[in-house]
Amino acid sequence: MPLPGSATLQIKLIEPLTAASREKDPPFPEVWKVQSGDQTYVARIYDPLYVEDDGFYDIFLFCARSLVKEYKSYELLKDVQGNLVPRYIGCFLSIIDTPPSVPIPEKRSVFVTLLQYIPGEDLRHSSEWSICASHRAAVRRSGCIADRELARCQIWHQDLAERNTILKVGPPSKEPFCHDLSCKLRWQTPATLLRELHPTIPSPIAIIDFEHVDIGPKWYLPPNADGDYDLLENGPGWFSKYWFS
């Protein structure tokens, strides 16, 4: 499977973003907050050294397929880049420092996908947060809209887990969005119930990680956000019972 065209890139690894994202972590984090020039980005590394290997598949082929799926997904999602998903900067060949304790040369050439860095937190620890009912409903509805919008773009996310859903964090507003003094999102996210995704309406969440997706048309779409259905059964994978309490 051919890889997308690439160019060389100089990046500086700043902070790992996937160290605790799996029960069995890869030897070294594969997603990093990086700096290139004076800009901050997210870099996903496609290299056997940085990918979890259970020994059940060809790790080199897995890296190649994952890179291509990300590339094709962002191509189909071009209309919602920078809002529902990060902006796709490009695929590059980069030389990075080899992790300590690895008995190979100090520098290593790897393929990386460079993405927009979106300030925020993923939903892995959301059950520990204090969020009011209005904000939980807003995030829940946004998840339904995101699921449907991905499907409209012919992207069927197979790993829409909490770790792959970022709750955006922006500058605090001048006025609170709710009256719950303990709500984590009181100064950050409008507690409105979005009814559609539109370029002029910022999505409060962003979806990431498109290496586990089905691509292409299907005969159905996920239920809309106003539908009368069981969200715990049919909604995005991160809809835990916390969002309904």
What share of residues are in beta strands? 15-25%
| Main β sheet profile | 6 strands, mixed
Widest sheet: strand ordering: 1-5-6-4-3-2
Helix and strand element order: EEEEHEEEHEEEEH
How many discrete structural domains? 2
Radius of gyration: 19 Å
Q: Could you please describe the fold and organization of this structure?
A:
InterPro entries: Kinase-like_dom_sf. The protein is built from 3 helices and 11 strands. It has 245 residues and is an alpha+beta fold. It folds into 2 domains: 7-116, Phosphorylase Kinase, domain 1 (2-Layer Sandwich); 120-244, no CATH class. The longest helix has 20 residues, at 133-152.
Quick recap of the structure?
The chain is an alpha+beta fold.
Strand and helix layout:
Elements: E1 7-9, E2 12-16, E3 31-36, E4 39-46, H1 59-76, E5 88-97, E6 107-116, E7 120-122, H2 133-152, E8 155-157, E9 165-168, E10 205-207, E11 213-215, H3 231-234
Parallel strand pairs: 1-5
Antiparallel strand pairs: 2-3, 3-4, 4-6, 5-6, 7-9, 8-11, 9-10
Keywords:
3 helices, globular, 17% helix, 2 domains, single chain, 245 residues, Phosphorylase Kinase, domain 1, alpha+beta, Kinase-like_dom_sf
